[in-house]
Amino acid sequence: MPKQTASLGQKILLSTISVVGFVLALASGFYFFFFSQTTGNLIDRQSREITKQIIFNYERYVDSVIETANYLQLLVTNRDVVIELSDIQNIFELNTEIKRDVVSIMLFDPQGRLVVGSPVNISATTTTLAPWFVRARQEQEIFHFSVGPSINPRLPRQEDVIYVSRWVQYRNRGVLTNGLLLIELNTEVIIELSEKTNLGDFGHILILDDTNSLVYSSGTGPIVEESYAFIRNRFLGVYRHFLDPIDAYVNVNSLAQTRWRIVTVLNITEVSQTQRRVFLVIGAIFLVSLGITVAVAGLISIRVTKPLSELRRIMASIEAGDLSTPIDVGGQKEIVQLAHSFEQMVSRVRELMERLVTEQTEKRKTALRALQNQINPHFLYNTLDSIVWLAEHDRNDDVISTVVALAKFFRISISRGETFISVADEIEHVRNYLTIQQIRYGDKFHYTMDIDPQLLEHRVMKLILQPIVENAIYHSMGDDQDRISIEGVLQGDVMIFRITNTGYGITSEKIREIRDMMMGLVEQSSVGLKNVYQRLTLYYGEKADVDLSSILDESTTVTLTIPLEIPEIQGTGGHE
């Protein structure tokens, strides 16, 4: 045994001296490589997350503008611009006053003559030649975003605004006529959104239109001109580029519904400098470590091999998964300290594993809260507007019914913080929503409910039916004969809810796209089907599902499959 021990010690001594240089060089190279890769990936993830949030903020603003435009389009379609001119003009002016970004709202006829809105400082002939008028007339199905001097005489001509234009139909003495709806926006909200983002010193945001012209820049000076020149002919992607005086990560993305591009320039100079410093430090460590290793290699003796072997056996046992293996190693002071450090590390691993379980549970709870908080009934504005309109027309009974239904709707939405409510409450929540919508839209749709009484006492995750019903109303509006049916049945150990709406239906390809969107494979800002699907699968797992089926030109059906058994997440108690 002593001979074997001496042989092992000798091998350790010789191998340490002979290969230490190569090992240290290889380790240093790999360490720097992985450090560079890690920091690069970290920068990339951070850049993408920041860009994603910026795009989300701007797209949410664009959605709010389009929602306002859709509301105004519905207004001029349903009301006569001759008979009810004063009311329509008042609503245009009211929207201009309450929305700080809206400069003016105007409706023009096909010849460029102003129908509703404030006077303009250009002629009808000039209007029809304006780019925003020409493009809207050429592509009548979409909104067009462009930039130019305001035609509102209250603003200086040199002050640029954002034009939002679309070809619409308006009612003129009972006859639907084509025309153009124009909304002028200032850049106040765009500036405010950019000021909320920290992209580092010299970091900035650029917005370009579809002609590569600069719409907005959050910075000024040569660096902005340099970044603008760099991305003019680059459409989508992430680029690492030096923009004097900074190293920058440049993200180029499209801005939905606008045909514009948004560019974020993130300052990563500090990271680049850190990488260079780390390279120098690693080089110094390599040289020092090599010298020290060679100096102390001769001190290694046979006395360290036995405790090392014992420590190795213990480490192998722990590596196999037995974290309860006792660590009791004697011998040299350094080996004892190593064993003690390893014991502390194992103890720390046990703590981290326990913490990981707790953090995963909290992460799941947080994800559920985030999805739950997305259910913010965006129809509240239109509902309040409808209440005002009903009050102005002395329809007091409808005002009372609408307010009562709205109060009940939000009472169930809040549900004292509970995640699960009875099916009866969920159905009542949908009924209140439909009451509000029927008062608002009159006889434009009809609905039926057929809920199995056995379901009513069971508990279900709240706010799962209303977003689906909202989608059904949105996609079936337009025909007095449209029908929406809501069915609920009990099949074994699952609840089945079917929401069907008549209409044009959707293709199988579109159904696959919606399915991909619900599963997060496709980026989209929808908070309806995707939200319901993700909340159900987050809590119930694969037992729950949201399925779509459609018959073209007849109907579309959304089917929700929900287990009766309510899962338990540690620490939630069934509450958010």
Structure summarized in a few sentences:
The protein has helices at 2-78, 85-98, 124-129, 131-138, 188-195, 222-231, 269-297, 305-319, 333-373, 380-392, 396-414, 423-441, 466-476, 508-518, 529-540; strands at residues 102-108, 114-117, 144-149, 160-172, 175-185, 204-208, 214-217, 237-243, 246-255, 260-267, 420-422, 446-451, 459-461, 483-491, 494-502, 545-551, 555-563. With 576 residues, it is α+β, with helices and mostly antiparallel strands. It starts with a helix and ends in a 13-residue tail after the last strand.
Helix-residue proportion: 40-55%
Spatial ordering of strands, largest sheet? 2-1-5-4-3
Which range does the strand content fall in? 15-25%
Largest sheet: 5 strands, antiparallel
Radius of gyration: 33 Å
CATH superfamily of the domain at 374-563: Histidine kinase-like ATPase, C-terminal domain
What number is the mean pLDDT? 80
Number of extended strands: 17
Could you say what the CATH architecture of the domain at 374-563 is?
2-Layer Sandwich
CATH topology of the domain at 374-563: Heat Shock Protein 90
